[in-house]
Structures are given as structure tokens and as C-alpha cells.
Write a structure and sequence with these properties.
elongated
């Protein structure tokens, strides 16, 4: 009788542990991470002509409605800026952190933004965390 009780408790413990740790149970894949930021019309995060919030899921193309784009801040995730429409034309730039001067990088007129951009399918140019110093003339 004691042996049956011990075996029953061991079986119960093994089944309980399997249920708690997810052994043998299909786990759902984590949701893909999106990205968000605030695109400002002026450099150094100023807003002389307003700003635009950017937010979306990977693969989503966002149209920019600002006449000029000077900086981007509060960046979470990765996104690719394009100087052309529909996230498939013009120059591209991969951004994953705040940038105080998009003009210096040639993106003073960003037209569209693709959410994502850290893979080979997006041929954007990643930017350094700190811009290189310019030589004085």
C-alpha cells in the first residue's frame, strides 16, 4: 500500500511539473516587436513646423506628412527612413536610436518610414550612435 502511494505521488509530481514548465505543450511564439518614434520638423528635436508620431508593426510603411524632417526622438525598435515614397525608393537609413540632425545625414526630407529594417531585405545604411566629427575649414 505504501509503495502505491509513493508511486502515485511521484506520478502526480511529474505530471504537475510538466504542466508548470510547459513540457509537451506547444508554446506560442512571441509577438513581433514594432517600433515607434517622434519625427520633428527641426533639428535638435525642435518643432518649428510640427512633429509626427510614428508607430507600427514590422513591414508596415508609414507616410510622413511633414514638409521637412530635422530630427527623430524617443525611438523604440528599428525603422528605416526613405527619401522616396512607399518605402521602396530614394535613399534609406536604418534608425534604432535618437538622431538630432537628420539634415547632416541627407534626410532633411524623409518621405516614408518602414517599420523594421535590421535585416538583409532592407538595404538601409545604419547610422553610428555618435556622428563623426567634421573637419573645420
Amino acid at each position: 500500500m505504501l509503495r502505491k502511494t509513493v508511486l502515485s505521488l511521484a506520478t502526480f509530481g511529474a505530471v504537475g511539473a510538466a504542466l508548470l514548465t510547459g513540457i509537451g505543450i506547444a508554446q506560442a511564439a512571441p509577438a513581433p516587436a514594432g517600433a515607434s518614434a517622434i519625427l520633428d520638423s527641426g533639428t535638435n528635436f525642435s518643432e518649428p513646423d510640427g512633429s509626427q508620431g510614428i508607430s507600427g508593426m514590422p513591414g508596415e510603411c508609414i507616410a510622413v506628412h511633414l514638409g521637412t524632417t530635422g530630427s527623430i526622438q524617443f525611438v523604440t525598435g528599428t525603422m528605416t527612413l526613405f527619401t522616396g515614397a512607399n518605402c521602396d525608393s530614394g535613399k534609406s537609413l536604418v534608425v534604432d536610436h535618437d538622431v538630432a540632425d537628420l539634415n547632416a545625414l541627407g534626410f532633411g526630407k524623409t518621405v516614408s518610414i518602414l517599420i523594421g529594417g535590421d535585416d538583409a531585405a532592407t538595404q538601409g545604411t545604419p547610422i553610428p550612435a555618435t556622428p563623426a566629427p567634421t573637419a573645420a575649414s
